[in-house]
């Protein structure tokens, strides 16, 4: 009997080591330490100091479980300010941990530390984190993965989960790029390469060794967690000879659908299933994966393509035993859309639908309490006297929402709001465009496009069922704009081209299973209508996730007042909140 007992104990121990770790059913505290520091990095024939977290480029992956409390101690080891934003994490009542500089906190000064303390509530899937000060997120970013409490709502067994993060690389100093753009009011220098997990791939100079290669097994299914961390470019992505099944966007499950490729804007995440169903050739067991820009702008851009490879695991003794990329020439996937393929982009976005199941219902507001219509514009400002301007026609580029170009205050808006100090902002963001005109039909360069500057915020009561219509304009050029809302998920109930019609267009809204996101691609020369419950008290940033546009002022503040109950109120600030 005693022998049988020890045998059972031994079997239990062996099983414990053999089984994969299951998601935790109970919440726990997960602690991480981020050191923001310089690291020498070489890419595309250039070596330079790159701002990193813990010396890694891209930065480390944060992996937690649904319901966990997360504590990240960020220590700033550089002689510049910094902050970190947890992109897509709702930060329920914990706006102090959201991260955008001068919106929810003052920056972390050199040699200082700040602990971001928040809980992951009713969220699961792929998000990401990045710096939210100046253009530091060019290199300071990483994946934020939330493992679900319950099994995935799709039946395919997952062999492995693979993060794929797109980024941009500049051979020069990114601070200098931002400085020159700000000084002269022109467009920024374009990046010199796109990257997959920090690697540009063999289409760029000196980069064969810096190529992302992912080994897979034939017949297995993989979950690709795709993140667009690029600063200024929306991207198409495809894998040669393979289809992808979209199952999640911005950490929200979708109705699955297959596609030859995907469109992903800066700020967005997309989870896809990939089945290794091809028969690799004996001489070439690799398939090209590629990302290149979706072009909707007349501004200069990085007209290049980054590639990596899917490598099928084989039992032969050929070159497949090595992890080196094949020799050129390289053929791009035939299923990769052309750069101006707005038709594919539109069809892809129209295919996105919330899962809307019993376990994961679609809680879209059927009715609204308030509708705000805001134009999204690029602007051309007259050059001040005795200054040199390098924008179009020797003027300065700016950007605006309802002709308001956002200016960050000298202290955080959240702290001013919490302490009832109104000197840093005003709560009179216009809820309609100041003038009604043919937004998408005006001449791009001859109309008056001077904007107004200030720190105006939209303020709503707790619980407001809010609709925001984001209307692109033709000023300078119509462009696809990825608009990110902090602190809330929203439902994209409608999209269209041309000018939004408040009488006709809402009749075609999808209020059954619209896609739920935190970043919406407002179509070029069109509009997008989003709905949300303003149920998260605090101050939140709403802005374009093309970094140049945010720098030009394409942003607004958004305040949700505290409700009547204690559970509907913003928590007090932490003791280590950085001062201004």
UniProtKB/TrEMBL annotation:
Its cofactor is Cu cation. This is Laccase. It catalyses: 4 hydroquinone + O2 = 4 benzosemiquinone + 2 H2O. Its EC number is 1.10.3.2. Keywords: Apoplast, Copper, Glycoprotein, Lignin degradation, Metal-binding, Oxidoreductase, Repeat, Secreted, Signal. Residues 36-149, 162-313, 429-562 form the Plastocyanin-like domain. Belongs to the multicopper oxidase family. Residues 1-26 form the signal peptide. Lignin degradation and detoxification of lignin-derived products. It comes from Penstemon davidsonii. Binds 4 Cu cations per monomer. NCBIfam families: laccase. Pfam families: Cu-oxidase, Cu-oxidase_2, Cu-oxidase_3. It is an enzyme of class 1 (oxidoreductase). It is found in: Secreted, Extracellular space, Apoplast.
């Amino acid at each position: 009997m005693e022998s049988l007992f020890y045998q059972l104990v031994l079997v239990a121990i062996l099983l414990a080591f053999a089984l994969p770790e299951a998601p935790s059913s109970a919440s726990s505290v997960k602690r991480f330490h981020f050191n923001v520091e310089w690291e020498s990095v070489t890419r595309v024939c250039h070596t330079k100091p790159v701002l990193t977290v813990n010396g890694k480029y891209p930065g480390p992956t944060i992996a937690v479980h649904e319901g966990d409390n997360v504590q990240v101690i960020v220590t700033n080891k550089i002689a510049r300010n910094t902050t970190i934003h947890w992109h897509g994490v709702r930060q329920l009542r914990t706006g102090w941990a959201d991260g955008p500089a001068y919106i929810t906190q003052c920056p972390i000064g050199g040699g200082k530390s700040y602990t971001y303390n928040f809980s992951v509530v009713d969220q699961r899937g792929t998000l990401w984190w990045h710096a939210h000060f100046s253009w530091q997120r060019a290199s300071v970013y990483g994946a934020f993965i939330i493992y679900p409490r319950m099994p995935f709502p799709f039946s395919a067994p997952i062999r492995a989960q693979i993060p794929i993060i797109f980024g941009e690389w500049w051979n020069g100093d990114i601070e200098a790029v931002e400085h020159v753009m700000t000084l002269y009011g022109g467009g920024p220098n374009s990046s010199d390469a796109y990257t997959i997990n920090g690697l540009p791939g063999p289409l760029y100079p000196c980069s064969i060794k810096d190529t992302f290669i992912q080994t897979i097994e034939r017949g297995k299914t993989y979950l690709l967690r795709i993140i667009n961390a690029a600063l200024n470019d929306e991207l198409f992505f495809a894998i040669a000879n393979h289809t992808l099944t979209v199952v999640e966007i911005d950490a929200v499950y979708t109705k699955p659908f297959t596609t030859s490729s995907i469109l992903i804007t800066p700020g967005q995440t997309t989870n896809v299933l990939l089945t290794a169903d091809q028969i690799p050739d004996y001489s070439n067991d690799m398939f090209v994966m590629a990302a290149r820009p979706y072009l909707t702008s007349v501004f200069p851009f990085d007209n290049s393509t980054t590639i990596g490879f899917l490598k099928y695991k084989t039992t032969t003794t050929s070159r497949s035993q090595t992890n080196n990329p094949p020799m050129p020439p390289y053929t791009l996937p035939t299923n990769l859309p052309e750069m101006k393929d707005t038709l594919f982009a539109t069809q892809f976005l129209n295919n996105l639908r919330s899962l809307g199941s019993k376990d994961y219902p679609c809680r879209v507001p059927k009715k609204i309490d308030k509708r705000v219509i805001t134009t999204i514009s690029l602007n051309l400002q007259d050059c001040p006297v005795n200054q040199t301007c390098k924008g179009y026609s020797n003027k300065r580029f700016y950007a605006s929402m309802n002709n308001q170009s956002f200016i960050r205050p000298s202290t955080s808006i959240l702290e001013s709001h919490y302490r009832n100090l109104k000197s840093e902002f005003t709560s009179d963001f216009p809820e309609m465009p100041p003038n009604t005109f043919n937004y998408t039909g005006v001449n791009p360069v001859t109309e008056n496009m001077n904007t107004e500057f200030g720190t105006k915020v939209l303020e709503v009561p707790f619980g407001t069922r809010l609709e925001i219509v984001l209307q692109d304009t033709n000023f300078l050029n119509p462009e696809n704009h990825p608009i990110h809302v902090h602190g809330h998920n929203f439902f994209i109930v409608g999209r269209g081209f041309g000018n939004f019609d408040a009488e006709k267009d809402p009749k075609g809204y999808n209020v059954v299973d619209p896609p739920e996101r935190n970043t919406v691609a407002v179509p070029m020369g069109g509009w997008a209508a989003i709905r949300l419950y303003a149920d998260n008290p605090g101050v939140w940033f709403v802005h374009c996730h093309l970094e140049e546009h945010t720098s030009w002022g394409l942003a607004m503040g958004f305040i949700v007042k505290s409700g009547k109950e204690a559970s509907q109120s913003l928590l007090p600030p932490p003791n280590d909140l950085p001062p201004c």
